[in-house]
Design brief:
Blueprint: E1 19-27, E2 29-31, E3 36-40, E4 43-45, E5 54-55, E6 59-60, E7 71-74, E8 86-89, E9 97-107, E10 274-275, E11 278-280, H1 286-289, E12 296-304, E13 309-313, E14 325-335, E15 340-343, E16 355-358, E17 362-366, E18 374-383
Parallel strand pairs: 6-7
Antiparallel strand pairs: 1-9, 2-3, 3-8, 4-9, 5-9, 7-8, 10-11, 11-14, 12-18, 13-17, 14-15, 14-18, 16-17
Amino acid sequence: MSLSARWRFDPFGGGYQPILISAESHVIEYVPEIAKYGIFLNEAPQFDSPSTVVITGYTEVSRLTSPTGTQFRVDYLADTYYSTGFIEFHSSKNGLTVSIDYYGLGTIIHPNFRALTNYNFAGTVNVEQQFSAALVTDSSSTITGGAIFSGGVGIAKKLYVGTDVNIGANLIVTGDYSNVLKSTDTTDASSTITGGAIFSGGVGIAKKLYVGTDVNIGANLIGAGTTDASSSITGAFKTAGGMGIAKKLYVGTDANIGGVLNVTSDITTAQGLKGERLILNSNYAMGSAMNGASIRSQRYDINMPVGNTAIVTAHGLGNIATGSRFWGMLWAMYNPATGVYYTNSLATNALVGTYAAIDNTNISIFRGTTGVAMVVTVTVFYTI
């Protein structure tokens, strides 16, 4: 039986067009608002004489007679009645299930006359206009609130919720991914339980993540990308600004530093330290020979005409004490006239045939036979 049946009355020709409804089942219950025991029919019952309302095992009495034993009385759609479709039984029948046959005139359209109690429909309810629930009870579970559904709810269009939404299982979104999940709450996050969106569990993101300000990670940051770096803007991890690291840093292959390397503690290496402008002799097995001593540096600027050889006693310069161990040096040439620096990696006439060497006592420099007079800048790395 369809519970969306329209009111079966011909407004032009007059007269009702009832249909027989068979075996409509209900449980007799107490209705506290009217202090009576009974049931509400799904449709307005037609008033006939003799009555066409049949309940097996029960006998109908007039609407002015209170039922006793196996009696019942009906509120019909008729004059002197209130058209609620309520059938009253004796209190001794509370909790029993009854099956009713009657002629229905359509779904009851007199909500002002209905008692405020639970109403059980046996079939589908189709609402062609707005559905409103006046109860303002808030929800704290799946069985509380102003509207309760034991099964699923299908919504073809938008859903607006004024406060919290609690989902007990998965939230699956199959729509436009540009507008899937939004929060207009502008509360900033200061912990894992604050902010405009809060998740007690993990979050899986298959594509990009954009964060406008800081990202605070309470545990490990693990990147599975294997892209190698060839510049400061390539690699599996990139940052446009600086990076602060409070503890150790391990690099599996090369480390390229485009600026100054400042070390405030020891440098330990088992195979030497190399760079475009820095060579520390690995033949000395620095990792074991230094015995944990710090590498220190001293810079010298030496005027070198073309074709000149200089042998400088390194221990006699600066603050390098006799007995220091030399590990390597960084050298470059400076043209005072042009302000240009040259290094041994540049193929230029200013440097042809120029070289520098160091041992434990002396710095040896030979100036090439071409170019102009230069200032040779030598930075020596040593340990005491």
